[in-house]
Specification:
Blueprint: E1 2-8, H1 19-33, E2 39-44, E3 47-52, H2 57-64, E4 72-79, H3 84-95, E5 102-109, H4 118-132, E6 137-138, E7 145-151, E8 156-164, E9 175-180, H5 186-196, E10 199-207, H6 214-231, E11 233-240, H7 242-251, H8 257-275, E12 280-282, H9 295-302, E13 309-310, H10 318-327, H11 331-334, H12 356-363, H13 368-377, E14 380-385
Parallel strand pairs: 5-6, 5-7, 9-10, 9-12, 10-11, 12-13
Antiparallel strand pairs: 1-3, 1-4, 2-3, 4-8, 7-8, 11-14
Helix pairs in contact: 3-4, 5-6, 7-8, 8-9
The protein binds adenosine-5'-triphosphate (ATP) and magnesium ion (MG).
Amino acid sequence: MEKIIIIKYGELTTKKDNINLFINNLDKNIKFKLKDLDVSTNYDKGRLFIKLKKDNFDKVINNLKEVFGIHEIIIGYELNTTNINEVKNKVLELIKNKEFKTFKVETKRSNKNIEKTSLEISSEIGSYILKNIQNIKVDVINPNLLIHLEFRNTKSYIYFESIKGLGGYPVSTLGKGLLMLSGGIDSPVAGFMGIKRGIKLEALYFESPPHTSLEAKNKVISLSKLLAKYNNDIKLHIINFTDIQEAIYKNIPHEYLITIMRRMMYRIAEIIASNRNAKVIINGESIGQVASQTLSSMKAINETIKMPVIRPLACFDKLEIIEIAKKINTYETSILPFEDCCTIFVPKHPVINPKIGLCREYEELIQYKDLIYQAIKNHEIINITSEESNEYENIL
Ligand code: ATP
Ligand code: MG
């Protein structure tokens, strides 16, 4: 009998035609996440089995809790037999020292060569347990101890409890997306939700030195690192936005500063996304949160590009977003007080109902195509992993 980890991946099983792509990605992501922990994996109809060479179950499980596509993580026992008498004895051995007054046996049988039905096996093993342990009884509704048995082709499995996984799809399964990552609370949460649906992220940050500080940039690097945990690693693109921002500030009526600035950001994001083979842009916009996120503003900003923009937080309240940020551990970093380029040069009365015609007219006042070209040409790329040894570990 060997102690192993069994992975269940619920929602994926509904993707009939693409199941292999999903499973291969899940397997690859699990291997990547556990690469230093000495494990091997194998797949058998609806389950992934992980065998550990060392007794480091806690570490392995903590890492698995950060892998999308996993719905349940189970510590179980593998037996090289499907003989019911042998399984019975192993069950007894495993539960002897457990404290419980009521129990239930639940059997699954993918090996249809076993003559008995699942119910018959459950009841046979249940009776055997009752005979061998005093003062316990069966409770099928709310048992203290639930004994799961699975009979497969040549092996059977015993387990008792499962840990909830992150759910969603394995990262990369749906292709690549470019996350507009500011140092704020919203965009890391939006990124997390994108990864959850199987999108492999690259990130894009606009900085405006000297108006924005190195600390602000380092904060974005730290946030990228937190996201990299779920994304395997992350490529962070950094655009120096200073010349564009100053040109806007000097030449364009101030109520349109933010609208035009965001139109420029979208244009740059689309070019970088296309260059990197990303199919979508993801950002942390939430309807009505600020002047640039009214429906009219979103329309005026979005019309500059063709690529789809995914806004996972569009309909979330700030408090709901904060709750997720706390859960995924980005909140404390996000609230560090460093200005980013959206918070400098903020006009007193930003337009909430921008006119697209006026946006286009104002943009003619600056050489924005040249400025965009220069910004992209000079852009910096940092490859970030979530490893402890990461060189950016101690920046903040
Ligand atoms: P966040 O929304 O992340 O809390 P924020 O509230 O400062 O930060 P908004 O002004 O609400 O940002 O901008 C909306 C979205 O635009 C952000 O969620 C982010 O996706 C994108 N964005 C804003 N500023 C930047 C930036 N400097 N670099 C990259 N993306 C940005
Ligand atoms: Mg925001």
